[in-house]
Amino acid sequence: MNGKKVFEEMTPYKPGKQTAEVMKEYGLTKIVKLASNENPFGYSEKVKEAIPSLATDFEIYPDGYTTELRKVLATNLQVDKDQLVFGCGSDEVVDIICRTYLEEGSNTIIANPTFPQYKHNALIQGATVKEIPLLNGYHDLQGMLDAIDNQTKIVWLCTPNNPTGCLINEESLTLFMDECPSDVLVVVDEAYYEYVTTENAPDSIKALDKYSNLIVLRTFSKAYGLAGLRIGYGVANEKITTLLNITRGPFNTTSVAQGAAIVALEDTDFLSYSLKETAKNKQTFMNFLDELELEYYDSETNFVFVKLPISGDALFEHLLSKGYIIRSGEALGHPNGVRITIGKKEDMEQLQELIQAFLISVLEGKQS
Ligand code: PMP
After folding, report:
1. At residue 154, what are phi and psi to the nearest 5 degrees?
2. CA 20 to 30 Å from 50, out of 137, 178, 336, 344?
3. Cα 91 to averaged position of ligand 1 atoms, centre (Å)
């Protein structure tokens, strides 16, 4: 039984290696996963404590309106409750947006490389995807504006961008929004929002008051450490969220995820702790890269994309055999590079030693 024609050229998402699989393959007792930008500090102890009381009444459907979490977030973000739409991770919000706005004959504009789910979901809806190459890790915003035509429905701005980590600053975003036609939806995906430290970051939620064609995506998967519970959200003008709420499944986030997200928002100490540790370890890692004269993209996230004098796959395979899972740039459209999530101090120290030793051995081998 064939699917839509577009499936002939598509494959299912291939998740990174699973910890147990790698342990068995290489006979290792410890694995450090630095491949998916998860939080190495875990998640709030308060969430852990709350889970038993949330894990009840499974025979009842969850609250399809996400009432309590909606109230808390609306207050925190100072938006109207109905400006929010929730999803099974922001992944699902991406899918909901594509199902709502894209169809055959329409097109959508993305950066390249960027988060792959924009393209994946757009293709399934039969839309054409226009990919505009990044400029040294940053979105080519003028190039993206120039690519807009009468059939363009959505422009995706992943900021900070995955896999490069580069942020679109306030001035650039404002210029872009001012130039972008108001009937083109602009998705500002801020999955790594909490990690941003630069002063000229945009206040995208405030920008919603000015631009009715803007939607901001955020998630509990990264800084809050709740990737396994699958909950993310979008914030936009009510006209947009009404359509998205028509498209989404009626019970698309679980009661446990909704409750845990509320507790996670309350525990600001855990959030500050993990952001502070990540920032420190990232700085140490960038100093190490500087010492080795390795280039990397500007990063406003919990990961760094390192440009290498060798293939990303070679470093990936080597580190894998030592128990460190990172992401090779090969699959991300950048073969001579790797994306490394910032981990705990002791793990980063060991990783740095392994990277240095491997690069020296490979480069010396090349010379001799
Ligand atoms: N957007 C970006 C830029 C991401 O990197 C990710 C996760 N890798 C997501 C969205 C999806 O996150 P989630 O579905 O876990 O909320």
Report:
1. -140, 140
2. 344
3. 6
**CA 232 / ligand 1 centre spacing (Å):** 9
Quickly name the fold that domain 5-43+269-367 has.
Aspartate Aminotransferase, domain 1 (3.90.1150)
Strand, helix or coil for residue 340: strand
Q: Is the CB of 227 under 6 A from ligand 1?
A: yes
Runs of H (alpha helix) within 187-311: 204-207, 238-247, 255-266, 268-291
Q: Is residue 332 within 8 Å of residue 113, measured between CB atoms?
A: yes
Under the phi-then-psi rule, with left for phi > 0, alpha for psi from -120 to 50, and beta for the rest, what region is 4? beta
- pTM of this prediction exceeds 0.90: yes
Distances (CA, A) of 104 to 3, 5, 198: 15, 12, 40
The DSSP code for 88 is S
The tens digit of pLDDT for each residue in 294-343 reads 999 999 999 999 999 999 999 999 999 999 999 999 888 788 999 999 99
Strand 327-328 and strand 337-341: the pairing is antiparallel
Q: Could you say which DSSP state residue 169 is in?
A: -
End-to-end CA separation in angstroms for the chain = 56
C-alpha of 48 from chain center: 24
* pLDDT value at residue 367: 59
Can you give the residue ranges of every domain in the chain? 5-43+269-367, 47-267
Q: Is the pLDDT of residue 240 over 70?
A: yes
Q: Which atom of ligand 1 is nearest to the CA of 162?
A: 3
- Find the 233 Cα to ligand 1 centroid distance in Å: 11
As beta bridge partners, residue 78 has none
Bridge partners, residue 349, by sequence: none
Class at the top of the CATH hierarchy for domain 47-267:
alpha beta
